[in-house]
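ok here's the first one, seq then struct tokens
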Amino acid sequence: MPASRRPRRGRLTAIAAATAAAALTAGLTTGCDAVDKALDCVQTADAIADHVTALQQAVENAANDPSQADASLDSIEKSLGQIGDKTDDADVDQAVDHLRQAVANVRTAIDDGDRTPDVTPVTAAAGELTKVCTS
């Protein structure tokens, strides 16, 4: 009987090793996914920061070319769409929502004829997004 237990014990050991390897692989893959999402978040937040800077400059130069502000707002919204598609983090989603609302408010102000809308809420919301992505 001890001889029959050895092959069984060997099979159990092999099954346990395979299960452990599968769990380790799944953990590493999940970890990489989390790192990839974080990097995507940081990269997109960085791009949004560049767009916000362009928006600030466009608002300062609105008398010369009011379409620059619209183009900057479009770029921010496009980047927000990209980050929204790549994350399921509640804090990131909330920061994206705040930034979307701030962008919408600036767009409304421009559409209503305001040539120098207050972009401070956009800057603050972009800072919030950057903070959430890097923490």
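and now the second one, same deal
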Amino acid sequence: MLICAALGVTAAGLWLLPGEAERAGLFLPENAEYVLMGKQIYRGSCASCHGVNLEGQVPDWQTPGADGKLPAPPHDETGHTWHHADRVLFDITKLGVAKAANLKNYESGMPAYEGVLSDDEIVAVLSYIKSSWPEEIRNRHDELNKQFQERD
């Protein structure tokens, strides 16, 4: 019970950071501290697959490799990351694709970062990624987050 309460407080804190009440979603791409922390964590934990410049593993990231798994997609504006709401991206990062999407027998090269990165570190990495997108893409992503929140 105490763990659930602590998780609720942490989640509420992520949604209601000072000065962020109007913001849709979890990510903080305007917060320089989060973006810098996220960039450092990304370079150490994500860049080996997703590319130092968010370019993805291979140019044809939508075609499965010889192992049957999709290569790591780009996280820049050419990929599909911004097509997913913050909560979905957070869950994929924390839990892994199969668990986040409730896909049985789905194999992915994307590891789950639960127990490796804290929730704040995951938000920081995803904030860094979002901070790299052009303003038009960020605005579209914000609208997607608003729609996602309205459904909940």
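notes on #2: Residues 23-151 form a domain with the Cytochrome Bc1 Complex; Chain D, domain 2 fold (CATH 1.10.760.10). The two ends are 23 Å apart (CA to CA).
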